Automatic annotation (TrEMBL):
Residues 1-19 form the signal peptide. Belongs to the glycosyl hydrolase 17 family. One of its GO terms (biological process) is carbohydrate metabolic process. InterPro entries: GH, Glyco_hydro_17, Glyco_hydro_17_plant. It catalyses: Hydrolysis of (1->3)-beta-D-glucosidic linkages in (1->3)-beta-D-glucans. GO terms for molecular function: glucan endo-1,3-beta-D-glucosidase activity. Its EC number is 3.2.1.39. Keywords: Glycosidase, Hydrolase, Signal. Pfam families: Glyco_hydro_17. This is glucan endo-1,3-beta-D-glucosidase.
């Protein structure tokens, strides 16, 4: 039996390595949100290992956690880091902005790729008008501080918006922003054009389906086969809601400022695997379909009907279920993984969460992955 197993080793190595290559290349250019509102998450070094085994090369944080940035040193992962809402008033001061960058960014950029700073999150759909007035000055001051420190060419500044900043989203060509937010968005959009930075939107077809399950076609929301919808103004056909939402944002931008050269990126999208009784559609199967089908669309490198030559840019929400998030049950169940590293459902990604912490250097990644998969291979051989 042992001799037969050894004769199968070259074949098994070929099959195993081919499967491994397909697995690690499956996420393509997609990114993932790494939230940490939980008390049971694995340590950042273990998360770094997990994401490397999944070949995820873009990560979005909601802060600038030094433990995370250190754990991902030399990993090749590109980071979007967040400057929390609580910092906005201070960031209007150039000295405060420069100090924040010197403390939270500069110590890590020699080894960890930081490509973007999001100033605040969903500010314009909150109730604090004063905070809204701080948003653009904070973005401008942080960008100016980066320029002073010679970092503005490698790190861009933006902010993430809720999809609820739109007053109309259908048909996509008639997308418009809320009138009460126009005064804020006009300046923000001019900032994006001047700095060549993207406009970020958090878009969730789940919310539209949950609110109107009798009116929204679930297959349309989940990228499943459906008859689609036709925009009567452009005759463009949409076979999924997310692409229609993205194009509605493009239309709203053009309607407000006349710009058509600002790229729209999706900073959050996902589907919960569990919810409260009134959260219709929050199931593991729907979450699997939404995220899995969207992943396959990303692999196709396609654009939206209105922007076919601009590949969609997506950050999935989220890496883990977060047990301390407030709100309805769905808020705690958007993760692709449980905190122990096991998948909530299968969308074709096979990762590995080690039991202990590891260094995140590129050399150690290669060694760790080799021995991890070698151990799996040996177990397979011994079972023959």
């Amino acid at each position: 039996m042992a001799a037969a197993s050894l004769r199968l080793l070259p074949l098994l190595l070929f099959i195993f390595s081919d499967s491994f290559i397909n697995t690690i290349s499956s996420l393509g250019g997609a990114g993932i949100n790494y939230g940490q509102i939980a008390n049971n998450l694995p340590s950042p070094p273990r998360v770094a290992y997990l994401l490397n085994s999944l070949n995820i090369t873009r990560v979005k944080l909601y802060d600038a956690d030094p433990n995370v940035l250190t754990a991902f040193a030399n990993s090749g992962v590109e980071f979007v880091i967040g400057l929390g809402n609580e910092y906005l008033q201070k960031m209007s001061d150039p000295i405060e902005a420069q100090s924040w960058i010197q403390q939270r960014v500069q110590p890590y950029i020699s080894q960890t790729k930081i490509r973007c700073i999001t100033v605040g999150n969903e500010i314009l759909t909150g109730n604090d008008r004063q905070l809204m007035s701080y948003l653009l000055p904070a973005m401008q001051t942080v960008n100016a501080a980066l320029a002073t420190l010679g970092l503005d060419k490698q790190i861009y500044v933006t902010t993430a918006h809720s999809f609820n900043i739109l007053s109309n989203s259908f048909p996509p060509s008639a997308g418009t922003f809320r009138q009460d937010l126009a005064e804020y968005l006009h300046g923000i959009l001019n900032f994006h054009q001047q700095t060549n930075s993207p406009f970020l939107i958090n878009a969730y077809p789940f919310f539209a389906y949950k609110d109107s399950p009798d009116q929204v076609d679930l297959s349309y929301a989940l990228f499943q086969p459906n008859s689609g919808t036709i925009d009567p103004n452009t005759n463009l056909r949409y076979d999924n809601m997310l692409y229609a939402q993205i194009d509605a944002v493009y239309s709203a931008i053009k309607a407000l400022v006349g710009h058509s050269d600002i790229q729209v990126k999706v900073s959050e999208t996902g589907w919960p695997s569990k919810g409260d009784l009134n959260e219709v559609g929050a199931t593991p199967e729907n979450a699997r379909l939404y995220n899995g089908n969207l992943l396959r669309r990303i692999e196709m490198n396609e654009g939206t009907p209105a922007k076919p030559s601009v590949p969609i840019d997506i950050f999935f929400f989220a890496l883990f279920n977060e047990d301390l998030k407030p709100g309805p049950a769905s808020e705690r169940n958007y993760g692709l993984y449980y905190p122990d590293g096991s998948p909530v459902y299968n969308i074709g990604l096979q990762g590995f969460l080690p039991r202990m912490d590891y260094s995140a250097s590129a050399k150690n990644y290669v060694v760790m992955i080799f021995f991890t998969y070698l151990s799996h291979l040996l177990l397979l051989i011994c079972s023959l």
